[in-house]
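Tutorial handout. Part one gives the primary structure; part two gives the three-dimensional structure as tokens.
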Amino acid sequence: MYKNSLLANSVRFALISGAAMTAFTAPAVFAADEGADKVERIEVTGSRIKRADMETASPVTVIDASAIISSGATSIDDVLRNMTSAGGAMTNAAVNNGSGGNARINLRGLGSNRTLVLVNGRRMIASGTGAASTVDLNTIPVSMIQRVEVLKDGASAVYGTDAIAGVVNVILKRDFEGFEINVQTGISGQGDADETSVDFTLGNRFDKGNIVINGQYTKRGEASQADRDFSDCPIAETSDKSALYCAGSSYSEGGHIWGDKNHGIVATGEDGAYAVGDSGYYGEYIADPETGKPKWKGFDDKSVPDLSGLGGQYHDFTDADRYNYSKTSYLSTPMERLNLSLSGTYEFNDSVLFFTEAMYSKRWSNQQMAPQPIWNSSAWAYDSSWMTQDLVGLVQEGEKLDYGRRVVESGNRYFSQTVDTVRIVVGLEGEFGNGWAWDVSYNKGKNDSVDTLANLHNLGSIDDAVMNKEFDPFDQASWVGESIAPYIYTELNSGGSELDIVSATISGEIAELPAGYLGFAAGYEYRKESAHYTPDSLTSQGLANDPRVEPTAGKFDVNELYAEFAIPLLHNLPGAQQLDLSAAMRYFDYSTFGDDTTWKLGLTWRVIDDLMLRGGMSTAFRAPTVSELYGGKSPSFEQVDHPATTQTQAEVTVGGNPLLTPEEADITTVGLVYSPHFVEGLSFTVDYYDIEITNTITSVDDNYVANKCLDANGSLINTGTALCQASNIAIDGTGRISFDNGLQNIGQTNTAGYDINVAYAFEGAGLDWNLGLDTSILEEYEEFDQDGVPIDYRGFITGGAGAYAKLKTNFNLTASGDSWSATYEARYIDGMDSLACENKKCYAPSVDSIIYHDISATYDVTSNVRLSGGVNNLLDEEPPYYSGNNDSNTDPYTYDVLGRYFFVRASVKF
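Part two.
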């Protein structure tokens, strides 16, 4: 990784030289005056060196516990998703199809797998269902959080893999003393999605240490898509894109039969292809006037059957026969969660401290979708000698029929997950006689999951029964009661992941230079990760209706060494009150792909007391995870808007790739911090970031693949491109599009923009006021496909990758009195265009900007009792509809789907 660059070699030389100097000078440096005043130094996210100044070369946003409480959040993802620097597809409770009950954070829209999540500065175990590779934020109890530090810069040199978009470091309570209990409940303005949380925290200090115990139980109810006007049916657009109508799935109740347009045609072309002059019952092949190639043309007096069985009698299929799958799908998914936490310390002596952290999380989550849509993978020939007579006269004897059905007789599909996550950290920390700090620790994490999917159908067995003349699929009675019962099953899958980390660090001050002390930190880390996923036996054999799902299993380990320097260059000079250089480097050796290095340089220049300039350059990397390397192929049904079909979902095969290599990134940040002395309490920061990722591990947007590789008539196009060759795209007789879209090292992802923050604390009218304004401006977001063609996401909203607004702004204002406080917050999301409509006409090619208004307040009844509450989305803003939407006719990754939401909270502390 960048081994041949002059800058990388220079950094390597500087670090190695510094490390050598440390070995020779460290023992003799500290002859400090015991009576001298000590400046408190803390470790800031993004650095292992403790320092007195919170402002570093990298921008860090701090969210304290009070901000979390005022938002009404019972999971930290509710707060993080509202950050202006977050974007893209952020899994949350509103994602019903495919969420698995998980909650993820996605900084810069670069994906949750490029945001590193730490707890107390150490890695958190990947968690969730299957072979999990990212952190489920449900595993971190909100009631135990002291603050959250969000580093919006690359940090691979300090923390290793995944820290490309940034780092979320959750700091838990460690020195809590007393007893606190909190009860919170909330409900939407529609009377659904109720949520209740109860937590307690117990802490005690004793002569040699302390202990903190926390427990939290949360229960969240469901909301249905049927209970909101914007989502109560799947909206479709007329063929001329001039109007909307309530549509649904063509796999409808009572069954949908597509006839065979080629019935009776004998192919006379080469290799069984149809040739000009081939003729049958419904039509014939003629020469295309433009290309001369064979083109099917129907006879004027005959039409290919397109039949619906809704109501028990077969008739011509119309839009009225479509199935409204929204009426039984969740708008917000239910969940129960139990979190137990413990942290403690014990002093063996004045120089050695034992510490431990333990976390346990158990989650029960559910999703609900409409009854299963089934279809035959190969056409069934109609035979009236044993099949129903209802089709006589509507189809031809022996005609091969494509069939799809919404099996409402078997009931809705119920998804459930039970997930157990354990994390235990034990370690020692202390100081040498010269004042250098050290620590050693062992971090163990384990995640186990079981997920089920009820009311599925074994279509493999049904197909066999049809071939054996034991099951008539066209007879309505076949899908009811005892006839269908033997073919119904519940899918049972299991998975898990495991993490082991042994680490050791040392930090201190090497020498006193003219501008200050030369700080140093170094460490070693050994990490082993493994993950597995075992699909249901029927599913893994391909006997269910969906294509077969393959198992996942794999592991890797890595050895890493890192070093970091904080180098003071200038001090108390005109135009340079303080100038500091920071440098870090990490060497890593993976069992899967080998070794490499990554580095970081940062500069802070305090020009005067009021003004500090900062900037940084770094390389970062993301190693492919177990699931990305060894994930078995599986089907995923994704929203696709394509003129060749009225079906809105495509069957997309996804999966891992053992040939993947690490992503590599070049990251640059430049910014300033300004706190004018003439306006006390005012601070202003602006930071520019530029992230260039090469060797990107990703899959291409599904709409992009479908529209690049199929024309409006469903014919293959761009067949010479790597994108379309790899997709194996096809469209069957039912209009169902299918293609492969697995993970690849596609090429490059570039993003750049600005983060602006204004904070102002002042007094007025006898009150304390705090004002905050956070703004993120997206200047660039491009991803390149396999052929090097850029896909511009900036200012676009997508069907599956979330939204990339050019501008997002959060404003908040808090007024505080002696025993109360009140907060108002406004969240602005800029208008966007639909990526699905970039090169074609759509009814709703864009969405307008939207502003959410939230209010909250607290009141101290006594010194021990506090009441609080609030209303989120005060004006009940409805999420926008756009062509090519994700689910619920909108984008649940980005917009609030519940509407106005109320919450109240009571806290008692002793």
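Part three, for discussion. DSSP finds nine helices and 52 strands in the chain. The two ends are 54 Å apart (CA to CA).
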